[in-house]
């Protein structure tokens, strides 16, 4: 199927199909797809625009590399859980719109961003105005124990916007740092690089679509 381009402007590609992208759940059976932004379990407390299904996509090459991570983790008794992968441009725009709304959920704020205002999440670099997720080359993930099914203790939850979420934060325990390093070693040995501000965020070094941002829905 040929890629149907609706708009190409300032690097944004609007597309109706997934040419060049693959479903992680189909390519790598056994990977857990949490897909937080397709649920209420995220910092906005809402289903995010563009997430119409509980699925996760990546560009084909980084997806194949992630399958290798999955297999290597299994050999050590672990599985990988995906919080987010490809992210439509409209979702990034949704985050920006959300940030301009006066705080209306203090309980959610305490769970995800207790030390900052919504706008400060952008100012401090926790949320990008343009995301490598929209290029199909970034993934947010963690490890879980195959026997117990429990996530490894990484010290913070996904999308906890705080210094303690830095990959080498001084505010976590030695065991939590060991768990983060385990994930980092698996990912970096397969071509990914970590975003030091977030232990869960990795981008594929050799991006298939550098400079391009996609906006098809996750469905």
Compose a concise summary of this entry.
This protein is α+β, with helices and mostly antiparallel strands and 219 residues long. The protein contains six helices and ten strands.
Describe this structure in words.
- With 219 residues, the chain is of the alpha+beta class.
- It has one domain (5-214): Muramoyl-pentapeptide Carboxypeptidase, domain 2 (2-Layer Sandwich), CATH 3.30.1380.10.
- Helix content is 27%, strand content 19%.
- The strands form three sheets. Strands 4-6-7-9-8 form a five-stranded mixed sheet, with helices on one face. Strands 1-2-10 form a three-stranded mixed sheet, with no helix packed on it.
- The longest helix is centred in the N-terminal third of the chain and has 16 residues, at 60-75.
- The radius of gyration is 17 Å and the shape is globular.
Side-by-side strand order of the widest sheet: 4-6-7-9-8
Span between N and C termini?
Answer: 17 Å
Low-confidence blocks of residues: 1-9
- Strand-residue proportion: 15-25%
**Total number of helices:** 6
C-alpha Rg, in Å? 17 Å
Helical proportion?
25-40%
């Amino acid at each position: 199927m040929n890629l149907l381009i609706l708009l190409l402007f300032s690097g944004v590609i609007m597309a109706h199909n997934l040419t060049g992208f693959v479903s992680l759940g189909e390519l790598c059976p056994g990977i857990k797809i949490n897909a937080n932004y397709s649920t209420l379990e995220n910092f906005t407390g809402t289903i995010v625009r563009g997430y119409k299904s509980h699925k996760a996509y990546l560009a084909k090459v980084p997806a194949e590399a992630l399958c290798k991570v999955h297999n290597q983790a299994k050999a050590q008794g672990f599985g990988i859980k995906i919080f987010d992968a490809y992210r439509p441009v409209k979702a990034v725009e949704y985050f920006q719109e959300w940030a301009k709304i006066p705080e209306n959920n203090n309980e959610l704020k305490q769970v995800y961003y207790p030390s900052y205002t919504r706008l400060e999440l952008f100012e401090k670099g926790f949320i990008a105005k343009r995301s490598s997720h929209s290029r199909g080359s970034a993934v947010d993930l963690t490890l879980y124990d195959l026997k117990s099914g429990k996530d490894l203790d990484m010290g913070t939850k996904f999308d906890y916007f705080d210094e303690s979420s830095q990959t080498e934060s001084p505010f976590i325990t030695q065991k939590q740092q060991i768990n983060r390093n385990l994930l980092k070693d698996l990912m970096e040995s397969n071509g990914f690089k970590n975003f030091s501000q977030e232990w869960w965020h990795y981008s594929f070094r050799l991006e298939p679509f550098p400079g391009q941002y996609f906006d098809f829905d996750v469905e």
